[in-house]
Amino acid sequence: MTARSLGNHRRITVKIGSALLVDRRTGLKRDWLASLVEDIAGLARAGADVLVVSSGAVALGRTVLGLTARSLRLEESQAAAAVGQIALAGAWAQELSARGLKSGQVLVTLGDTEERRRYLNARATISTLLKMKAVPVINENDTVATSEIRYGDNDRLAARVATMMGADLLVLLSDVDGLYTAPPALDPRAQFIPHVERITPQIEAMAGAAASELSRGGMKTKLDAGKIATMAGTAMVITAGTRMNPLSAIDRGERATWFAASPTPVRGYKTWIAGNLEPAGRISVDAGAVRALATGKSLLPAGVTFVSGRFARGDTVAILDPDGREIARGLVAYDAADAVRIAGLKTAEIEAALGHEARAAMVHRDDMVMSRALEAEAIHDEA
Ligand code: GLU
Questions:
Q1: What is the span of the domain harbouring residue 168?
Q2: How many Å lie between the centroid of ligand 1 and the Cα of residue 266?
Q3: Claim to verify: residue 250 and residue 286 sit in the same structural domain
Q4: 77 part of a folded domain
């Protein structure tokens, strides 16, 4: 069995896009769901833990309510999600149970993965479900999530869940069959890419921004998901879910793009930092600080050139190099006002500037994760 097979993974998160599960006119695509669940049951029989991240609440709710013709206001789509989610979860439970599998519904809001305490709590619940051999069926709690505080797309939610649960594979089933050198709908010469070793800026440039009518994601959010997943040691595969039995189709060699997991994944606490979806601030640093970080040092105020955003001590910030590229993420030791005050100062000058005793590091190395772009350059520099 090759690595490009579902069969040799022990914990698999499968994300299903709305367009696969829901037909605008007829509602839930029951036969297709049954065929997917047949595949899931096969993986479970072979000993794998399977987690499902299922979209489709809003789309299904719209169909049930007869609200398919126009765009919805926020409160209408929240109501549609409430109607759709109950039907969606019911269908999953029935199909899984028909294959002898138990299931449990998990609805999460952004804070459940982004706040450390809630992250640990969500992880404990989901791992208990897995221990009980119940398939977690996960979605965003769209009924209460408002536009400012939400994942918005299930690609990144699925990546966050996969890494939180230590999955070794994330499968994104959608209406595209993989990554191309350009969005194939816009460029007929676009070439299919079967394997991505690392998501570089060149790879990201291939994504474009297109999304289908029913799904919120597009290739861009899939690559964002890929970065979160692969950095934490979770491989990812993107394939078209449109055919029946879409998971076993991957093992039969249907078209799919595989993204390799990092050979040096971040672990534990740092997985949570690395995958953080929305850094509260940005800290730009000079070339000297970039070099220091590449060798594993903490970020000192002296190397900071610019601070933006509103953040409190302990929030996640993105660290940018002089070209504006994100090179690391970490938990900041100062709030935004103090960070601005001490940016560029030498360690000996900090206390006088703040009027009280202070920590030396702006972001301590133990609370920081380097992005893989810098990793590669560090290797390159040493060669
Ligand atoms: N949570 C949304 C739903 O269930 C879907 C988000 C997405 O399509 O990525 O309708």
A1: 6-270
A2: 28
A3: no
A4: yes
